[in-house]
Amino acid sequence: MYQALYRKYRPRTFDDVCGQEVITTTLRHEIAHGRASHAYLFTGLRGCGKTTCSKIIAKAVNCLHPQDGNPCCECDICRGIDSDAVTDVMEIDAASNSGVDYMRELREQAFYRPVQCNKRVYIIDEAHMLSPEAFNALLKIMEEPPEHVLFILATTEVHKVPATIISRCQRFDFKRIEADSIADRLEHIAQLEGFTLEREAGLMIARLAEGGMRDAISLLDQCWSSAQHIDLSVVAACAGMPENGALFSLSQALAERDCAAALLQVGTLCAGSVDVQRLCEQMTEHFRNLMLARCAQKPEQLLVCLPQEVDMYRDAAASFTPRRLLDILDAIQDALAHMGRTPNKRMELEMALVRICEAAPAPDESARAPESGALEERVARLEALLRGQEAVSAAAPPEPSAPPVVVQAPTEDMRKAARPFEQWAQVLEQLQAKNKALHGALAGSRAYTAGDLLLIHSENELFLKLIRENDYAKQNIHECIMDVVGRRYRLGPYKENLYRVDRDPLDELRRKAETSGVPVRVIGAAEQETEN
User: Fold this and answer.
1) How many whole angstroms separate alpha carbon 66 and alpha carbon 513?
2) pTM value?
3) What 3-state class would DSSP assign to 517?
4) Considering 250, 282, 337, 530, which has the largest number of Cβ atoms within 10 A of its Cβ?
């Protein structure tokens, strides 16, 4: 029966483990000198050696003929653990055995002496999946374990493991394995199995595996099923890497803000039976590569692409600013998140593309920066214009290719009119009962109206953060305004450079009179007729 390569070439000793030399050296020395801990916590990404090292520890502490901390892999105990025939070594999947009853049963069994081995070893994989009650049951025996018991917890999400458990374990963080180390291991396997693997193809497999040895060997196994000689084209075909020509055409359309071309390209891909959700994922990877090519000094070390495509990514990335690439990635990821909640996935992607093309250009989005001298000239003219002075330049006039910049200084008449919102104090009273924290952030604030827009003037930076990011805070303000005035306003911060406050002339006259010490009484029309 055929055995998968990742199982066949699973490391059997600490020396066989690739890319985790610091961890394996420490563990081997501890075991060689009889200082093995009673509990270990292994954390890291999938396929980087956590469970493999757990099995090696189980063999090393029980081996009949240990060799400087390594198991011999030849004695009955080592062979029994490799074949899962030794009952004293238990590998537990916490994802399917997460309940407290299972942990209580384990705790009771742990007090019995091992049958064949020196130590009873419990390997708990995906330990973060245990329930809080199960962790509490496990904690009791980990606090004061019997001398013959050793716990090894492996997890990909260590932040979900309680601090009380972590503090009782010796923790090791497994890192991503370097691409060169993975490629070396893959070439060694290919040589033993009798097929050939080009170095560039091995490095490509390593990058696709993102630092996981098991994923890399699995992909190598798949490539071997396709060809005896594995090159870049075989890897690209087996990994399902798309034809990047279509993605580059799509990104070029977005760079030119050509909405019609972008939608047409998506339509062509969908007509070719491309899954829209998968296309969206490929676009995310493609624009990530563009971002790295635009921002990284050595993008070839980070890009997941064929070596000959690095220059293509550099050239394509030059058409974008880093800010625009981030905005595009945000839009695509939002569309990908919404696809799980709508039957029309293609429409979500098309809407995202339209938003990307129709978005207003950012201030820093320009093809080429002006020359240094021209830039200084233009800045000087701008400063002069903003001071209301005529721009006078002592430098040489700008080149004909750089058109003069005309900026109109803001004036009072250019600002939009706003009126004080007289019921704001009542709104704040309502808000105090509904959301005390928000009421505190709005202490001393004022409000103005401009059409259906309610502008809030507050010096508190916490309020500005809440109004931009916290939907619950905005909902509370909307509800309080509705309770007081019975209508809904759009909310926004008041900015003096955009709005001017138009006050009632009578209010201004009354304010001046009161300031001068003149008593003032305002009467209505009916009251005036009575006095006459």
Assistant:
1) 99
2) 0.59
3) coil
4) 250
